[in-house]
Batch of 4 targets.
Target 1
Amino acid sequence: MNIPGSRSAESRSARPQVQWSLHWESELRLGDHTELAEFFRESYGPTGAFNAQPFEGSRSWAGARPEVRVIGYDAHGVAAHIGALRRFIKIDGGDLLVAELGLYAVRPDLEGLGISHSMRVMYPALQELGVPFGFGTVRPALEKHLTRLIGRQGLATLMSGIRVRSTHADVYPNLPPVRIEDVLVVVFPLGRPISEWPAGTIIDRNGPEL
């Protein structure tokens, strides 16, 4: 779950109106995917060409494909996005159903719009999916940002000291098929309290990251 940096005071004061809507994957048309792919290239490109590479043409996903998306639009098109996918992960060998959150991005001119805005729309949808937990991962460099957000909203718990194993979305000749990352895990209690999140230091997606 990539989260770009904070925006300037000027952009905070001049933020355009953003309208949020929820879209199931089968509802999106080719034109929607093309617009989203361009948005992701523009949003992820400043973090490195490799991060924008998966979104060539009309491909609007990088690894696993989401089943539901929350998309923010303003007068200039797509402003922000977050996706969710129900899947079973393994925590130290035990299966757990979660809704994985990922593909978070904000258009560069709106950086700092905030994941909390998209989560206001996504959170009720996650509750309707009937899963016990929402789950996502972020880079350790974003710990302070997420800690402030979680402290204000009280919707999630941030966990460190956990390694997450994923497969690559594609097979590369010079890379192993599996990667292991030391990341921060974000857990959203939905149908069960956070006290019932399984203890463990290894999470296996058994598939690519959303």
Note: Residues 2-14 have pLDDT under 50 and may be disordered.
Target 2
Amino acid sequence: MPYSFHSHSGQFCKHGYGLLEDVVKEAIRKGFYAYGLSEHMPRYAESELYPEELEANCTPETLETTYADFQIEAKRVQQKYKNQIHILIGAEIEFINKDYAQHVSNLRNVYKADYVVGSLHHVNSVPIDFSPELYAEALGQVNSLKDLYTQYFDEQYTMLRSVQPEVVGHFDLIRIFADQRVADETLLQPEVWERVVRNIDLVVAYGGLFEINSRSWKKGLLDAYPQRDIIKAILKKNGKFTLSDDCHGPNDVGLFYERLPAYLKENQIDTLYYLAYDEDGRITVEKHEHILDDVFWDKIQHW
């Protein structure tokens, strides 16, 4: 019974590929029970556009139009395939500055989003996951990797407190372009680790789900997001995990899910959670126990 709540397509994301409907069709082909459509929310200033968007002559206004178009198409495919898969419609949010708390609130109100994926892609307003060069630029604004980590988790805390996302996206994305050994050592430094635990406590308190995001393996990282020390801390606090492939096109559906059984077993995770509609059409959190016994993992080999 696989599921994912973090996805993109080239139809509505400049660094994705393929059509949204083809993403859904691939999820059906691969036997997904539920799939969340979560294209990026708009950004609201010219300075916040990515290089690829500037090259395509995007503006904050066109990004808003693109997201509105996504909502229309997502609802169409949701209805078209409702007897084959449970489709949820949300957004992956931004939190470049504190103004985004209101932007996210407006998005929820206007589009009645089923959920949001709470991600942090910027530190000091500099994108950290777009390229090694921009990561280096963000690092150059502080004194050390430790300082970059502490600022990331402080900005994440502000986002979590303001938005309370149903799904926390790639909790430790800040690891993406750092040397893995140094990254893990930095994470465990007291000033950083106390912020990690603080953020975990907040998510557990309001009932959010931590995604185990398999896309990190595409980036060559040893662990999924989050890495194993963070997973242990989440488990100790009785936090809840879900799954996300962070798909960016049809061929990414279920990306590296074949690695998940070993990763879950190594980290002693036997229960996951997923989002679903209740009888009144409201979003609820459902428990998926004994996941390693699920026959789904055997089916992955035939994808």
Note: The longest helix spans residues 60-80.
Target 3
Amino acid sequence: MNPIQILIADDDQEIAKLIKIYLSNEGYHILEAYNGRDALELIRKESLQLVILDIMMPEMDGLEVCRAVRADSVIPILMLSAKAEDMDKIMGLMTGADDYMVKPFNPLELLARVKSLLRRTSYINSQPQQSDDLDTLQIQTLKINKTTHTVTIEDKSVNLTSTEFDILYLLSSKPGQVFSAESIFERVWKDKYLESNNTVMVHISKLRDKLESELGGVKLIQTVWGVGYKIEP
């Protein structure tokens, strides 16, 4: 079996070296890039399972790289930044990152986040690649196939990240049921929810934009203020 390949893209070589030590000890094969252009080239050339991407890099920043990657790939992206403000976090997630950590961080926490993202991707890829109606959910003209990890609206493919797919599948699996942000986070990220965590809100917003652009503005995901989110059948 080929080792899992992870790209660390960070112009701070000391931080990149620290991350590499922890990930290498877990058996991951590590590639490194110290600017955005080299990172994007490696992402497009190599067979990677995950990208750790710093926001502030020369030549191309992490947000630009993330946008370019998301144009044609759903590879998991963990964004790093020295900025702790909510707006920076929101911008990182809105460009398509799956998770976000603020420097300085605990390397063991980063390792746990990496493993969580890889577990979700591994589960998806391990499923038999064949059609099975039992694994297909349909809400109006929206079809979600868990086996092939695809989403279509009137047979037109909708390109979602793995995180967006997991949120959509969760909501669609229980039409009419309201899921709190805490419940969504703990089920999708498989991690403890922290108060004032905007991660779910940002991913829901991005998911809505993608769905509504294909549904002619129809709002499939409803907000129940003070409670959470739901999809009506």
Note: The helical segments are 13-24, 36-45, 62-70, 86-94, 107-126, 162-173, 181-188, 199-214.
Target 4
Amino acid sequence: MILQKSSSSMVFKVRRNPAELVPPAGPTPHELKLLSDIDDQKGLRHHLPLVQFFPYNPSMAGKDPAHVIREALSKALVFYYPLAGRLREGPKDKLMVDCTGEGVLFIQAEADVTLDHFGVDLLPPFPCFHELLYDVPFSNDGIINSPLLLMQVTRLKCGGFIFAIRVNHRLCDGCGIGQLIKGISEIAQGAAKPSIIPVWCRELLCARDPPRVTFIHHEYKQLPLHNKTVSTKPSQASFFFGPNEIDALRCLLPRHLAQSSTTFEVLTACIWRCHTAALQWQNPNQEVRLLCTVNARFEPCRFSPPLPEGYYGNAFVLPTAVSTVETLCGKPLNYALELVKKAKKEASEEYVHSTADLMATNGRPAFSMTGSFIVSDITKCGFGDVDYGWGKPLYSGLVRAGIDDISGVSYYVPYTNSKEEHGRVVLICLPSEEAIKRFGKELNGILQIKDEEKPI
């Protein structure tokens, strides 16, 4: 049975200390560092928020998680010193990091709730999240010259706490953030340095000389939009997929495809179709696209030789599947699956270099969001392996789907539910609550879940 969660109306109070700048604990180089051409694209001009929920641990009684994490953060910044600097704009709008050592923003807070108030299964969207990661005035003002990282630790009435972090996406992708917070957690538990030492090496993902765009990059080609006006306030929901749901999807496929396809491919084919149907396109011939996030750290896109282990910059590309609304929603699930597999197969080391070359030659274009659906699988980022001394988090992952007020971006987060079923949570963002309901109805139809079997 699919576990679904939509927006909650729960309200609670948070008392915050004033935000403070935390600098590196020791001396760091003062230098300029260029971003890669994969980092420096318009589609990454925002912050990426992450949250972790930790229960009370009697063995840590008397210890303040905010103090422990703040001290570990300061020590970790000695190794991640570019994050304590500020972005500057160079010739032709090229971005670079001025390693000033000014520091990152840190907030200590307390909330008058317990973990139980968030439900048996901790799933996004989380109520009052703006209170759990306060948007400090001017901290997100135009990205340039602003702090690159904001962190808040909120203590709860039950003795547990919530750790929230917002990182400038130009500096890190999901794996980079995972590496950073793991390093902070290791130092929090007494290590002198992170087990994986961060490296910059952004020149590895800069454009070649001369640039050579060798692929058709549909992900950056803008399309005309032929659809009704949608709400400007997107709605959020999350859906849990365990082994039973994935097996049910595989049963809908020809045997050879069911056996040769990864869970990501099967799930993405299903989610793409449901997302497209939920939007109720007026034009059945409207072109729609699926942008699959493929990371150069992993197969099938893994570099040879591989990127350095400590690389924490953006290392992903977005190979794209293309169809029309009518064809995608009218054909069996295996049609969408074949398109997903074909797109993923296109991702290669050469595809990454071609993307970097496109950025350098075409003015670093933004992703095409018209008719597009972006899926990012963060199950390999290691968010759930972090332990600051209080044990593993109950939920560790992205806060929401979408980018700011733009829907059409979905994340897969590893999760174990209250029944101890291991799977992943799919974070969905659509233009309205009605569209969320249509998505759920379409999904239930594919999985053949009857109305009486739906969760309350």
Note: Confidence is low (pLDDT under 50) at residues 450-456.
